[in-house]
Amino acid sequence: MSENHKLRVSKIRNGTVIDHVHAGQALNVLAILGIDGSDGEEVSVGMNVPSDRLATKDIVKVEGRELSQDEVDVLSLIAPEATINIVREYDVVEKHRVERPDTVEGILSCPNAGCITAADEPVTSRFDVLADGVRCVYCERIVRDEIASLIEP
Ligand code: CTP
Ligand code: ZN
């Protein structure tokens, strides 16, 4: 297939391409990045596009924005195979695979209403990262499928 046939969403000038996202996870990637289209960011999304490495993949391109390490850490939880490409003046200047951290602190909130982190206490949330989800270190609640919905505003 020629490059033109492969290109589903146009190239970006400056920003981040999140590539090799598992098919079906693109909307969760947008949720993690806090993108809902309301603040005018230029974003392209490809879903179920053919991929060399995965059978099909999703891809998210965000113009004018480079991701923070916190954002990349959470992305790794739902898109463990993702490649983060930083683009400047149309060139990929940095490319790295996401790495799953052992723990994430202050990023996700525990869905257990009885958890100490849900009380009015100055406790920073902390989750251990498991092979297939995350576990609150305080109440041991495990979350697998709804991780994107736990992101603290
Ligand atoms: N990309 C883009 N805009 C640019 C440059 C690249 O949207 N100005 C996208 C490409 O379409 C591709 C991704 O960023 O989806 C990575 O680009 P590149 O490294 O050139 O592609 P590959 O070599 O195919 O990447 P990999 O080896 O990681 O699959
Ligand atoms: Zn908890």
From TrEMBL:
<comment type="subunit">
    <text>Contains catalytic and regulatory chains.</text>
</comment>
<keyword id="KW-0808">Transferase</keyword>
<feature type="domain" description="Aspartate carbamoyltransferase regulatory subunit C-terminal">
    <location>
        <begin position="104"/>
        <end position="146"/>
    </location>
</feature>
<dbReference type="GO" id="GO:0006207">
    <property type="term" value="P:'de novo' pyrimidine nucleobase biosynthetic process"/>
</dbReference>
<dbReference type="InterPro" id="IPR036792">
    <property type="entry name" value="Asp_carbatrfase_reg_C_sf"/>
</dbReference>
<keyword id="KW-0862">Zinc</keyword>
<comment type="similarity">
    <text>Belongs to the PyrI family.</text>
</comment>
<feature type="binding site">
    <location>
        <position position="136"/>
    </location>
    <ligand>
        <name>Zn(2+)</name>
    </ligand>
</feature>
<feature type="domain" description="Aspartate carbamoyltransferase regulatory subunit N-terminal">
    <location>
        <begin position="7"/>
        <end position="99"/>
    </location>
</feature>
<dbReference type="InterPro" id="IPR002801">
    <property type="entry name" value="Asp_carbamoylTrfase_reg"/>
</dbReference>
<feature type="binding site">
    <location>
        <position position="110"/>
    </location>
    <ligand>
        <name>Zn(2+)</name>
    </ligand>
</feature>
<dbReference type="GO" id="GO:0046872">
    <property type="term" value="F:metal ion binding"/>
</dbReference>
<dbReference type="GO" id="GO:0006221">
    <property type="term" value="P:pyrimidine nucleotide biosynthetic process"/>
</dbReference>
<keyword id="KW-0665">Pyrimidine biosynthesis</keyword>
<feature type="binding site">
    <location>
        <position position="139"/>
    </location>
    <ligand>
        <name>Zn(2+)</name>
    </ligand>
</feature>
<dbReference type="GO" id="GO:0009347">
    <property type="term" value="C:aspartate carbamoyltransferase complex"/>
</dbReference>
<feature type="binding site">
    <location>
        <position position="115"/>
    </location>
    <ligand>
        <name>Zn(2+)</name>
    </ligand>
</feature>
<comment type="function">
    <text>Involved in allosteric regulation of aspartate carbamoyltransferase.</text>
</comment>
<dbReference type="InterPro" id="IPR036793">
    <property type="entry name" value="Asp_carbatrfase_reg_N_sf"/>
</dbReference>
<protein>
    <recommendedName>
        <fullName>Aspartate carbamoyltransferase regulatory chain</fullName>
    </recommendedName>
</protein>
<dbReference type="InterPro" id="IPR020545">
    <property type="entry name" value="Asp_carbamoyltransf_reg_N"/>
</dbReference>
<dbReference type="Pfam" id="PF01948">
    <property type="entry name" value="PyrI"/>
</dbReference>
<dbReference type="GO" id="GO:0016740">
    <property type="term" value="F:transferase activity"/>
</dbReference>
<keyword id="KW-0479">Metal-binding</keyword>
<dbReference type="InterPro" id="IPR020542">
    <property type="entry name" value="Asp_carbamoyltrfase_reg_C"/>
</dbReference>
<dbReference type="Pfam" id="PF02748">
    <property type="entry name" value="PyrI_C"/>
</dbReference>
